[in-house]
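With this grant's support, we have settled on a layout for protein records. One resulting record is reproduced below.
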Amino acid sequence: MGRFIRLSFPAEGAAAVAELLEQAAPRTSEAVWSALPVAGMAHHAVYSGSEGVLLLPEVLRIDPENATSDVSTGDVAFTWFAAGSAYGVDADFAEICWFYAEDARPSMHGGAAPVSLFARIVGDAAAFYAVCRRMRREGIKPLAVERLPAEPVAGSAAGEHSVVCRDARFCCACPSLVRSGSELVVAFVQHTPHLGGGHADPRGLPVLVRSPDEGRTWSPAPEPLDGYRFWGADRVELAGGADGSLSATVWMPVYAAGGPEPGRRTSGGRIVYLGSRDGGRSWAEAAQAGPLRGELQLPGGRAWAAHATREAVPVIAGRTSHPDGSVVEAAVRDFGLADMGSPSAALLGDGRILCVYDGVDGGPGWTAGAGVRGIHATRVTPAA
């Protein structure tokens, strides 16, 4: 089985998966793999057409391998330059670069500059390429490059771990996933990171992201739930209908004035019920919400539910209950996350389950509990 890496724009909710070309570029593949994960500000190339670039924090000096300036859409490459080797190069630097349209041709001021092709983007990367194209006008954007697990995640998962939303500026916590008509919709709370921990914050904002393709891609920018009227929400849970309707329950705590922590609150508050007939694009207050998260009903009278545990290795477990009263439990793990919690799930058309959860994924140098909390997803095959 080959090795894969993921290039992601966390603030945009867009990512691409690339397979290493270990036969064509073994030295380069191994050196870049060993240097991951890396994160920084990606920029658009100046001379090379449709090319995105991430400067590496450490200068890797790898001799050319599988080098060419004749590149195609989806090629991922490495190169490095010594100070003074080309116009404008004042210090040594190394970079990962990728090409998102057919006009790309890696070049420097003096002409073509061959790069070492070491990976190739696979699958649908249209959203990722669209962000690359926007960098021409919008400028630099945060980018992360990380390894993907070589094997499916443990516990009967299909190995399709993905990022639903991750933004270094905000914590994203407590997702609620439902199906609304032909879409999957996730609601969660975004708030500014603070030392108080938890997700309750007077600056917290409940938001939605949606997927039209069974969770393979998600809307690039979260949309506020019913505008910005629910600043300070503690939590939001959804219920969905086959007709595209949604209902939402929003918990609005009362926060104490002052205090050392932004998350400090009193025990008071209120619950707001909302209804939507158009998949959450507009809302009206309702007398009562629909049923909240619980067990998913599976064929054969089975039911499936997820729960989180805090262990040395954080675990989300999927529990399949059978009509005869027996229960089979299987762990859903992702060893790249320092913390996992608040699982919510929906049944997919192929019989598998999409489980979303919040998790800390801080990139280079993160420590448990000190990274960026984002919303992640894993496809799971229910235990028999």
Summary: The two ends are 26 Å apart (CA to CA). Residues 150-159, 259-263, 362-370 have pLDDT under 50 and may be disordered. The chain has two helices and 27 strands.
